[in-house]
Amino acid sequence: MKAQLITDAEFDSKVLSGNVPAVVDFFADWCGPCKRMSPIVEELAAEFEGKANIFKMNVDDNPDTPAKFAISSIPAILFFKDGKEAGRFIGVNKKETFKQLLEKLIA
Question: Which of 8, 72, 74, 94 has CB atoms 3.0–4.6 Å from 62's, for a disulfide?
């Protein structure tokens, strides 16, 4: 499964109201570090299919949600559980770092 592209309008229903933990990768097409993170996000989407929802949001096309969560640098990857932010990473990180937090949220 691939990470699903979402919009400001879909954020609350898909991320905050979901019954499993969610991860949102806030990115932009022009962002080099975002491009380096993209394969990791896709790998997580495949590995955690059915256990967590993995989303991507283009900050240029959807300014409201990034503003709501005070995102000033990208890539920003936010983790949500039970409708609340449960963690965030800014910049390029190793896949293991994301996996460890995601596994904690699922447990």
Answer: 8
